[in-house]
Amino acid sequence: MKKYFSLILIMCLVSMTASAQWRVESVVSGEPNTKLLQILETEKSVLIYANFEKDCSETESIQLNRNTHVKSNGLKYKILHSVNLPIGDEADDRFDYLSKGKNEVNFVMEFEKFPVESGFDIIENTKEGDYNFNFRGVTVSRIDSTQLIDTERFLDTASPVIKGRYAKDGTDYAYLIREGVCITCNAVIQSGDWFSADEMIFYLDIVNNSNHGIMFDFDRVGIVGQKFKSKGAVEEKGWVKYTPDSYDAHLAQLDYDEARYKTSGGLDLLGNQINREKNNSGANSWARLGWAALGALTEHAIDNRVEEYMKAHPKDRPRALRTTSLKPGESLHGYIACKKKKADKAVITLPIDDFDFAFRYGLR
């Protein structure tokens, strides 16, 4: 929604009478994958058209810092909007997601109005670095309206995937949006009294806002642990997923064991004593039968206490995800669990249509 609002705004600004149009002639230094192409000076702001191209060896993400500004004649001019290249936001930190291979993104930035003809700098970060969107010593020359870029066609090269993250109630969430399909993920490591080993659980929301049906296929979901070796090498090993039925049953047993521990009290001790007396009785004695009957009554009493406790203290757990088809407008919520192994990073990949929705989590 933010993107479309900004696009409408930019189109409205372009449709106004421009006070001047400029072509970028030279840049003393700049971000190596980005070319500044054209500048449109409107009544109240300045639009800068740019093209980003990069051949990525692995997936990456890009965004503009909220503090990005233009510096001209010693004065600073703030960025107002950006279309196709998200501006970082503490509440909803969005990125363009770059896939492996060649990527191209055309984008337009809107700044407070500044004197273009004097030359200027675009500064994202005052500390120079490989990933800073800094351009020093930009010079321009005037062009006429016949040389203007077709804005709507220019912006058709938007990154097909938006990546973002946000926090809610102390929990961090990451999300990916592609062609109307949005997947949100947060991961936790379960360990402690009720877990026999470290287990990693990925909680997922899958929303289909596309115009066609999609399939979530549990069997195609991959989870790997990555170890970083010397000289940039990465070792990957697959982690075993728990089947949905087995892990739902596992959690139900853990809930029962926890409730029994908290409620049985002396009845468990009585049950243990009864079992000892039964085992010490003769194989076919009336005493053994009596102890067995008393043991069954004690176990029944414990089960009643556990049932009452679990009804009074229900666990609000999502269910394990199963293979499901989603029509337009439908959503799916649940988790996928696996046994965690030693690694530097965990990666879960969910193939939907012809795209792999991948989420990465550092483990150090």
Descriptive notes:
- The structure is a single chain.
- This protein has 364 residues and is of the alpha+beta class.
- The chain is 22% helix and 42% strand.
- The chain is built from five helices and 21 strands.
- The strands form four sheets. The chain has an eight-stranded antiparallel barrel with strand order 1-2-3-8-6-5-9-10. Strands 4-7-11-12-13-14-19 form a seven-stranded antiparallel sheet, with no helix packed on it.
- A hairpin with a 5-residue loop joins β16 and β17 (234-238).
- It is elongated, with a radius of gyration of 30 Å.
Which terms would index this structure?
single chain, 364 residues, alpha+beta, 5 helices, elongated
Task: Give the low-confidence spans.
Answer: 4-9, 286-292
Query: How would the global form be characterised?
Result: elongated
- The CA-CA distance between the termini, in Å, is 36 Å
H and E order: HEEEEEEEEEEHEEEEEEEHHHEEEE
How much beta, percentage-wise? 35-45%
Q: Spatial order of the strands in the main sheet?
A: 1-2-3-8-6-5-9-10
State Rg. Answer: 30 Å
Give the helix tally: 5
Query: Biggest β-sheet, characterized?
Result: 8 strands, antiparallel, barrel
Average predicted local confidence, pLDDT:
81
What secondary-structure arrangement, pairings included, does this model have?
Blueprint: H1 2-15, E1 20-26, E2 34-41, E3 45-56, E4 60-62, E5 69-72, E6 75-83, E7 93-98, E8 101-112, E9 120-123, E10 135-142, H2 151-154, E11 161-168, E12 171-178, E13 181-190, E14 199-208, E15 214-216, E16 222-228, E17 234-238, H3 244-263, H4 266-280, H5 286-312, E18 324-326, E19 331-339, E20 345-352, E21 355-362
Antiparallel strand pairs: 1-2, 1-10, 2-3, 3-8, 4-7, 5-6, 5-9, 6-8, 7-11, 9-10, 11-12, 12-13, 13-14, 14-19, 15-18, 16-17, 16-20, 20-21
Helix pairs in contact: 3-5, 4-5
